[in-house]
Amino acid sequence: MDWLTSLRGAIEYMEEHLLEPVTPEDIGKAVNISPFYLQKGFQIMTGYGLGEYIRCRRLYMAAMDLLAGDEKVIEIAYKYCYQTPESFAKAFSRFHGFPPSQVKRQRRRIKIFLPLKITITIQGGHNVDYKIEKMDSFKVIGFEEDIPMERGYELCPKMWDRLTKKYFSALWQGKTPETDLERAIVENGVGAFGVCVEGGGDTFAYMVGGAYKGGPVPEGMKVREIPAAAWAKFCSAGPMPEGMHSLYTQIFQEWLPGNREYDLAHPIDIEYYECIGDGMDYEIWLPVTEKGKG
């Protein structure tokens, strides 16, 4: 199943299950894609997270049902998978701008949210700068946090900012490491990688790390093993984090829909950073398998 077909299938699945509890794992299984890549790609392609899309569709359909006048608010709340009428009313008011009880008087203010239809024109997909490189397994060490999928572009840069102010800036300027943690940062080149790994549900684990060379793992840091794989490595340069976000968009909106050779493999991707003079070169690595061989 190709990338666009899978995304369209995900929308069809969500539309068919709006009245049931649905998880990213359910949707991913239905279209045979890792929930990690499905959530990341869906948000990049549509601007909505999976949970956000389901929530918006339910709240629009709930308004239509209330407008028809055949069901009570409490019935509509449970129908669209809210645990209490209060939580439904709060979500409804936040989405539409008025409470459910006023839907008939405020019918012109109902926020319309129809099913998405994904279409795309491939422009420049073959010009994406990438190479395929096979690598043995290796280990990374660094600082790791769980990040909500829908807030990755917001929270990952903030994590980098915190660590840069607390540790990296002084060490990169030549400060002599004084603690086990500072020595681990310097010895393992922590800050070279941003590692995204599938988490649970609607989160992913994000590590700011470096290539682990052995030795003690200080408190507050973690070691992960990256599996052996063939990696599609996409290269770019420019201001951060905008440049990295732009590269992700180019990969998911142009390369993946246009590529006929590779499927995504393990639910992990890696950002690689390298300072060149006063600028920054960076890469995104995606593990891939040749189509039909995964």
TrEMBL record:
Report the residue ranges that make up the HTH araC/xylS-type domain in this protein. 8-106
Question: Where on the tree of life does the source sit, at the highest rank?
Answer: Bacteria
Q: Does the keyword Transcription regulation apply?
A: yes
This protein's UniProt keywords: DNA-binding, Transcription, Transcription regulation
The reply to whether Transcription regulation figures as a keyword in the UniProt entry is: yes
**InterPro entries the UniProt entry points to:** AraC_E-bd, Cass2, Homeodomain-like_sf, HTH_AraC, MarA-like, Reg_factor_effector_dom_sf
State one molecular function term (GO). Answer: DNA-binding transcription factor activity
SUPFAM superfamilies linked: Homeodomain-like (SSF46689), Probable bacterial effector-binding domain (SSF55136)
> Which protein are we looking at?
AraC family transcriptional regulator
Taxonomic lineage of the native organism: Bacteria, Bacillati, Bacillota, Clostridia, Eubacteriales
